[in-house]
Amino acid sequence: xxxxxxxxxxxxxxxxxxxxxxxxxxxxxxxxxxxxxxxxxxxxxxxxxxxxxxxxxxxxxxxxxxxxxxxxxxxxxxxxxxxxxxxxxxxxxxxxxxxxxxxxxxxxxxxxxxxxxxxxxxxxxxxxxxxxxxxxxxxxxxxxxxxxxxxxxxxxxxxxxxxxxxxxx
Amino acid sequence: xxxxxxxxxxxxxxxxxxxxxxxxxxxxxxxxxxxxxxxxxxxxxxxxxxxxxxxxxxxxxxxxxxxxxxxxxxxxxxxxxxxxxxxxxxxxxxxxxxxxxxxxxxxxxxxxxxxxxxxxxxxxxxxxxxxxxxxxxxxxxxxxxxxxxxxxxxxxxxxxxxxxxxxxxxxxxxxxxxxxxxxxxxxxxxxxxxxxxxxxxxxxxxxxxxxxxxxxxxxxxxxxxxxxxxxxxxxxxxxxxxxxxxxxxxxxxxxxxxxxxxxxxxxxxxxxxxxxxxxxxxxxxxxxxxxxxxxxxxxxxxxxxxxxxxxxxxxxxxxxxxxxxxxxxxxxxxxxxxxxx
Amino acid sequence: xxxxxxxxxxxxxxxxxxxxxxxxxxxxxxxxxxxxxxxxxxxxxxxxxxxxxxxxxxxxxxxxxxxxxxxxxxxxxxxxxxxxxxxxxxxxxxxxxxxx
Lengths: 169, 341, 100
Hints:
The complex is a heterotrimer. Chain A is mainly α. Chain A is built from 6 helices and no strands. Chain A is 72% helix and 0% strand. Chain B starts with a helix and ends with a helix. The model of chain B has no long low-confidence stretch (mean pLDDT 84).
């Protein structure tokens, strides 16, 4: 019962905040709502026993990426956008397509529901106190190569960002 | 019924007590700061309200509440209103995972609100949310000095967070746990405070903590001599006091985490030496408070002593000194642990 | 215990909201935020399945998605700054030429 209340409250908050992201008038407001939604995701991760991910979600998204967004928003004064129309002319088509995709996804999930047998999942790998340890072990053994590639990706992104943003190198 | 008591009533009582103590502590921290700075400058500090100014914080609080709350016409009202809250709340939330006493204290409920398995990550992550309040406050004021202050602070806080994280990893490697309670227990079982195991990590953590809280010598975001007041220039009255409280709460957070990670939390000095057991006459939470007070004193002492950095110096120290040193510390620690343990 | 379908429906809905945002908005910054929202919706399905199947791999994938999101934000925001510097605009419709 408590499970259900928590899940539906969080789901409602996340959906409402996500809607506000695309309905808000200016970019800073959008960023604020997105931050609320991201915190909601972190709460859901805790409910799913992915505590480490919840912490990383807050640290990386809210404390890192969104701060970067706000930083850029302040660098490029957003107020220049406010007098223009906020939506492109294709908005009707866009909404129809997106709602179609949503309907299709939800239909497939509901119809295919029998695949996902609702049972108490095996907890062997997800025991509560060792989430960090389990993730770390998998990351440094099974997924070592992707992990290294990801680090190269970050390096490339860093160099790319510096090259793009600098006027003269 | 048992669940209700264990997971709702007891934590709520603890939260109320901690918030009350913390608020009082912050109020008297301002008085302590003024008194210590005054001593450093051969002044007396506040003397009028009560005996040696002992009631000064109450008078200040009343003043903040009574003063007019001005919102600039060009400001973004909604963001302007909630920004102080965004900066204040995370500072308080961190205390939900900081242990003040051993797990068997307080009639077996533990000397902490909760002991989660990612406590340290949680503390770092939540305190990184506080910077949003500063940025949004500076932006919403719609005025140039607050904007400059907010830009500076976002750059500064994000840069120093990285070095701070790497500094903490050194402790993690030794402690082998993210739970703050277990980190303290480990210090007891090893019989040594982590400061003596990881001195470099501690120095990096503490300096970065000063930068994170915007204290001198890293107080560029509010640099009153060049930016009027930084991100809170346009704030007045109650909302200004919220930013103010957030800064002091963050000082206490940084000091508490430093004590927990590096100075044995609630443990008395030399907790493994039986000959010093007469020190147990002071209960564990009091040891914790004493240690935190020492660090708060150092905060104020540094403020009274050092001048402010220039912005380029600040960035250079953060990225070119603290970060490489912290990374080297992690590597050396890891290598030693692999070799000898 | 919430069945995994509920998480999937939630994630599908959020993904669609993000998609609408990307298609409809004109401000590059808002479009970027909607992409982050879509990535997070996908992350939610990964974590939900990780819980459902009792395997850790889903959570590892989320780590990689977050890495890519961080890299994407860094490069994307650099492009936005460059665009603003050259064009004084954040409107995607005005950034139509390959060269200036």
